[in-house]
Automatic annotation (TrEMBL):
Name of the protein in its database record: Beta-1,6-galactofuranosyltransferase
Keyword list, A-Z: Transferase
Top-level taxon of origin: Bacteria
One Pfam family it belongs to: Gtf3_C
Residue ranges annotated for the Glucosyltransferase 3-like N-terminal domain, each copy included: 30-149
Keyword Transferase: yes
Domain called Glucosyltransferase 3-like C-terminal: residue spans: 178-339
């Protein structure tokens, strides 16, 4: 007997799960869609994701127009920004112009104008945001930035991205060993980690030209996200960007001022107190929740780790253990949506 779907009036623009190997975004975007489906939100997709022929484009446009006309009055549609697909952007424009009865929630998973340090792109993004009213932002810093631009916006925050994987804190002891997991190709600073001979680094991610061969660095390869919390080695989780180990540099280093990195959630699930740049939003979260600390330079790390009392390290892990179940279950997004439901 076919499943009977009850129309909850809750929809989301599905751009990530259907693609499998993602063109844009990553596991965090897919997890967001998984949480929404679990909670009864219905996906809006136009099919033919990998078909770029003219006929397929026409089919997608027809489906988009049908969606624009058929969404129930008073429905809620959640989208993850940035929106890349052409028909998805057309739907957003159509909703803003013709269907003002539909409430749009914009989850700011990334802001590319800030990420790429591109003022013209940022202004184009802000032009879209000005037509919206409800947002989910990473943290208080991103919320405050958005409210400076859009004072009337309703903004909820998550602080940490949900990470739908079994949490496994393991048995860890304070030691000068750090894990760095993520997009190694976008992390050129790792080539310089050999200069920090008093520290040991465990690297996880797809192969990259920057992977060091220094004796204090071990490359462990790439693993499915669901198994990472139980696989990663080290005592601390490193969050760093740019080309330098003496400072946070480049556009991504600047972008770190506003974002909650997805790898922070991985480290929480793995019970690894986080180390990050002192000027980053991650450092403010680490201080707020008591789960790590910030430094201005990685050259400070060896002394900071040596000076950290074992009981404080254990307390950080205890506080992570309190956060981990909710992150692993999708509760960060759910709490933000509950906050916006009354706005």
């Amino acid at each position: 007997m076919p499943e009977v779907r009850i129309d909850t009036g809750l929809y989301f623009l599905a751009e990530h799960s259907a693609r499998g190997a993602l063109v844009h975004g990553g596991v965090g975007n897919v997890d967001i869609e998984r949480i929404l489906v679990e909670d009864g939100w219905q996906p809006v997709a136009f099919g033919d994701q990998e078909n770029f022929s003219g006929v397929a484009k026409i089919r997608r446009t027809i489906r988009m127009l049908r969606t624009l006309a058929s969404l129930p009055r008073g429905a809620t549609l959640l989208l993850q920004w940035p929106v890349y697909a052409g028909q998805s952007r057309m739907l957003l424009r159509g909703l803003r112009r013709f269907r003002t009865d539909v409430r749009i929630i914009c989850f700011l998973t990334d802001i590319n104008g800030l990420k790429d340090a591109d003022p013209a792109l940022l202004e184009r993004e802000l032009a879209v945001f000005r037509g919206l009213t409800h947002f989910v932002a990473h943290n208080d810093t991103m919320r405050d930035w958005l409210l400076e631009k859009l004072p009337a916006a309703r903004v909820a925050t998550i602080d940490f991205f949900d990470f739908l994987a079994p949490w496994n804190a393991g048995e860890r002891v304070p030691a000068p060993e750090l894990c760095f997991a993520g997009n190694l190709e976008k992390s050129p600073f790792i080539a310089r980690l050999g200069s920090l001979a008093g520290l040991r680094f465990h690297l996880y991610g797809a192969p990259a030209v920057f992977i060091p061969t220094a004796p204090n660095c071990s490359y462990h390869g790439s693993f499915p996200p669901a198994v990472l919390p139980a696989r990663v080695a080290g005592a601390y989780g490193l969050i760093w960007d740019g080309t330098e180990i003496s400072k946070h540099g480049g556009a991504l280093g600047t972008y770190a001022r506003w974002i909650s990195p997805h790898k922070m959630s991985l480290y929480i699930l793995a019970g690894m107190p986080v180390v990050c740049h002192s000027g980053s939003a991650a450092a403010r979260l680490a201080e707020k929740y008591g789960i790590g600390f910030g430094v201005d330079s990685l050259f400070e790390l060896e002394a900071r780790i040596a000076a950290l009392p074992p009981e404080e390290y254990a307390s950080m892990r205890d506080r992570m253990a309190a956060l981990a179940p909710g992150i692993a279950a999708g509760d960060r997004l759910r709490a933000a949506l509950r906050e916006l439901s009354g706005a």
